[in-house]
Design a protein that fits this description.
4-stranded mixed β-sheet, alpha/beta, 5-stranded mixed β-sheet
Length: 397
């Protein structure tokens, strides 16, 4: 076995502290798939047995209650081994490669000193996706654009999975929004991104972007249950849809801000052109002493005060809208309402605990696609999403 593979696992064997109880959390970080797959059956048995012993963990079948490693499939052992590199209290929903190009969904819950696993039937990752045109007709979204990468049946299948879970009210908030297919995020950054909702003043309109990495992760993770797994790309589209929904009001503010800025620019340009003409006419009067030109200059000098006041008022309108827009982008009404019920440090995933906007997006996608996981990691939040307290935040003023 390569030394690099050995290092992945032997480092954790040095830690033999007792397992501590941890808050339930839905884990979204990538497990060590490549190093686990590199182990042959004999070495896999040795490593997983040593890892469980070192960390004081027991493997338990959720369906039968039986414990231990005897008789477990390679797929389950791989899933258990991937889980022990994560966090106590976490839930792992893993797609483990099986025979014939199929993948086995395995859920593992790290519950104190027990890894409770559930196993689904091997299956293909994707079904048959609808056409771009059918998705547009079905959900009222914008065009599906090949933007350096091509939409295929697999990712159209994932988008369909996500959009099919939205209500009419939620779909109305993303109506007409296009989906662009790119190789990767054009903004760069060290982190791997699967999809992004981009609401950028440099773009002609907001849009969803879906990247190549989505298909890679679909063969590692799923969202939902072992009996009805949802692709991770669908989960990430749902996450970005949540951002779009919660930003709907801010989107109106951005449009108003652009209009106000254009009005300010036009008024400023007109004022500056008027000042140029005024200064030129003053120079002409100094030469000619024309009495009619003098009257015109006096009238225009008196009007200048009003023109300056108009420009200042337009500047204030634009600045106020800019402030309101930035505030909306930092925390939308939906996000603020959620955080009144869910402290940020209790959000359901590690990523959700970084920002209020991510707490909303992660909670929303779990509510739509894996309610049981949300109920476990953030009790009571599914009920909030079911209530008018949530739906009322979606209404535009």
């Amino acid at each position: 076995m390569p030394a690099s593979v050995l290092r992945v696992f032997t480092s954790s064997l040095l830690w033999c502290a007792p397992v501590l109880a941890a808050d339930p959390i839905y884990e979204v970080n990538d497990p060590p798939v490549t190093s686990v797959k590199a182990l042959d059956d004999k070495r896999l048995d040795q490593v997983i047995a040593n890892e469980l012993k070192a960390k004081g963990l027991t493997a338990k079948n959720a369906a039968t209650g039986s414990t231990g490693l005897d008789g477990l499939s390679r797929e389950v052992k791989q899933a258990l081994l991937m889980t022990v590199s994560m966090k106590p209290g976490s839930e792992q929903d893993l797609m483990v490669e099986a025979a014939g190009g199929t993948y086995t969904p395995v859920q593992v819950l790290w519950d104190d000193a027990t890894l409770v696993y559930s196993v689904g039937a091997p299956r293909a990752v994707y079904g048959v996706g609808p056409s771009k045109e059918e998705l547009q007709r079905r959900y009222g979204v914008g065009a599906f654009v090949d933007d350096g990468a091509a939409w295929d049946s697999d990712l159209l299948f994932s988008v369909d999975l996500a959009l099919s879970k939205l209500t009419k009210e939620e779909l109305a908030l993303i109506a007409g929004t296009p989906f662009h297919r790119l190789p990767k995020d054009s903004k760069g950054g060290p982190e791997r991104k699967l999809a992004v909702y981009r609401q950028d003043s440099t773009l002609p309109e907001p849009r969803f972007e879906v990247y190549d990495a989505s298909k890679e992760v679909d063969r590692v993770r799923f969202c939902g249950t072992i009996d009805a797994p949802v692709t991770q790309s669908a989960a990430m589209v749902m996450h970005e849809v949540a951002h779009a929904i919660s930003r709907a009001t801010a989107g109106d503010q951005m449009a108003a801000m652009k209009t106000a800025r254009k009005a300010l620019e036009d008024a400023t340009t007109a004022f500056n052109e008027g000042q140029k003409k005024y200064n030129a006419d003053r120079a002409e009067y100094a030469r000619s002493k024309d009495p009619e030109l003098r009257k015109s200059l006096e009238a225009r000098a008196a009007a200048t005060k009003d023109e300056v006041a108009k420009v200042k008022e337009l500047q204030k309108v634009w600045q106020d809208l800019q402030t309101a827009t930035q505030k909306g982008l930092q925390q939308s009404p939906s996000e603020a309402a959620l955080l009144q019920r869910l402290p940020l440090n209790k959000a359901p995933t590690p990523y959700a605990r970084t920002l209020g906007s991510e707490a909303f997006a992660e909670s929303f996608r779990l509510w739509k696609l894996d309610r049981a996981a949300l109920d476990r990691a953030a009790p009571g939040i599914s009920t909030w999403f079911d209530s008018p307290a949530y739906s009322s935040t979606l209404k535009k003023p």
